[in-house]
Write the structure tokens for this entry.
Amino acid sequence: MNAPLAVEALDLERTYASGHTTVAALAGVTLAIQRGEFVAVMGPSGSGKSTLLNVVAGLERPTGGTVRVDGEDLARLDEEALARHRSRRVGMVFQAFNLLPRLHVVENVALPLAFAGVSVSERLRRARAILERLGMTARAEHRTNQLSGGELQRAAVARALIGDPAILLADEPTGNLDSANGAALIALFEELHAQSQTVLLVTHDAQIAAHAERIIRMRDGRVVDV
Amino acid sequence: MSLGNYGRARLRSALTTAGVAIGTALVVLLIALATGAEENVRRSIFSIGDLRLVTVQPFQPGANGLSAVPRTITDDTVAKLKVVAHVDGVYRQFDAPLGMVVEGGDDATIRPQGIEPGAPVDRGDLLAGRHLEAGDRAVAVIPGNIARLVAPNAGAAIGRTVTMRVGGAVKLGSTRIGGSGTPRDYGVKIVGVFDEQASQTSFRIPLEDALLAGAENRGLTADAIRQTTGYSGLAVEADDSTNVADIVRAVQELGFSSFSLKQVVEQIDQGFGVFKGILAGIGGVALLVAAIGIANTMVMSVLERTREIGIMKAVGASPRDIRALFLAEAAYVGVFGGILGLALGLAGGQIIDRIIRQLNPRTNPAAIFVVGPDLALGALALALGIALLAGFLPARRAMRMSALSALRYE
Ligand SMILES: Nc1ncnc2c1ncn2[C@@H]1O[C@H](COP(=O)(O)OP(=O)(O)OP(=O)(O)O)[C@@H](O)[C@H]1O
Ligand SMILES: [Mg+2]
């Protein structure tokens, strides 16, 4: 039997009601992402890229169709199980970093494990190990306001990786970075991919998307060509 | 998992904790004051007498004071009471008319009290000699003050024979009252002297002697007195104070009025229950205000930390984790405020106690504020409970927040 696909979406729909009209952010998305793949999602603003990522991340529930992540049908998970999905099965990197300013970098990285019942010493040990892997050991005990944008996003990647996720999700991770830091971040993704990490990356930037193995293009909530 | 507090929020938490502490301290102080007062009253009641005793009075139940309807206590009554469950003993008492000890002069006024051997009044209070015994006749156990009127001291009075005049004119304090019936003298031998603190006039003599004196005073026979006048009262002793209520009921069913310290104590307890309730209510209002403070702080905290909640949810915090986080924060305020308030209440009680004693050195030596372990634990539990209750709605709000909209929150 084959190992499950990293992501498998079938006729995925997500509509939003806004006033009298409804907006279909996802209007029937079907796609498959193999384990170990590095895929970029591109498309104009409002085409549904973030919505797709949020559904895979378990931050948003689809209104139609099915989605499986690492073999798990997300529609079958209750709120508690969906929370565990977010802390263990996927790792999410945001454009806005979303680190907690009052925690040290190492504590931020360890945060997902706090909700997975891992002891403090064990989660700090694992957080330090990941920070070392990403060359961030020198920044482990710093506060987030002492870090540059590039370093913040590296810390966010470390946090996304701490649960050893089946898939790394990133929504415009270079959006708040200058081109040098953006390039360094993409190099990091390529390196992770080389270590067989599955990566799903949303971007506007064709140059960045060019680093991926495959590009999925979206328009009006649909995949246009694969 | 608590992530601690920061900045402005820390000051707010400190103020909220102070509110809880003050409310708890007030509850502790007020209840401690009521408990102290209650213990004082109880202690003075216990020093009066035995809680196992029920006194049967020669009137009908409900009757009191001027409207009393007399009812005769006879040997039949005694026989009926002796077989009531939990009755350990029934002791008859007959009070002969007022009189005096002739050798003691004008001040030696006495109330000759005819009692049975072993009667509860004639126990454990001797200064010299012995108590009344079975078969005694023409003897008396007398108060120390009377003994000192006829002998140099209590010990020297033992064995003396004095003249007990029953029914003559006597001096009571500074007023003279005329005698009743025909005055008559009896020679009695002093066999015991008791500490007069309980009574300065009770002259304990054998029941038969008292009945005879009462009868002769009115030109009757002792038997006639037994049947028509009846006894002055009965002391019914229960096997345990918890059974006093049963005996009181039996006495009432026989148609007699009764008195028991135990029932007085129960009424006092009830009164203090209400008193404590009112005081606790006043303290409770302070705690309620504190609870509103907690709720307010928590609502602010949830709002302020909306983004943080979003981040935590995004990286895997479940709704339960978030609720636990905020409830833990409320519990922290409750426990910390409670402990602080308890300490504040204890210290405050000590200080007020000391001030009162300094202002009035003759204050009763017993503690004014009494904090037992149940009050201490109760106060802590109350503070924690109120904090959790106040934190519940804000925590639920945090729990139900959508992760994505929380992440977008500025
Ligand atoms: N919570 C929401 N309520 C209502 N409409 C929404 C909501 N989230 C997204 N939408 C709508 O769904 C559509 C897709 O949005 P989405 O954020 O997925 O686009 P996107 O491709 O990520 O765009 P961008 O490149 O600008 O980030 C848009 O029209 C958007 O307005
Ligand atoms: Mg987007």
Observations:
- The pocket of magnesium ion (ligand 2) is lined by residues A 49-50, 171 (CB under 6 Å).
- Confidence is low (pLDDT under 50) at residues 1-5 of chain B.
- The longest strand of chain B covers residues 184-194.
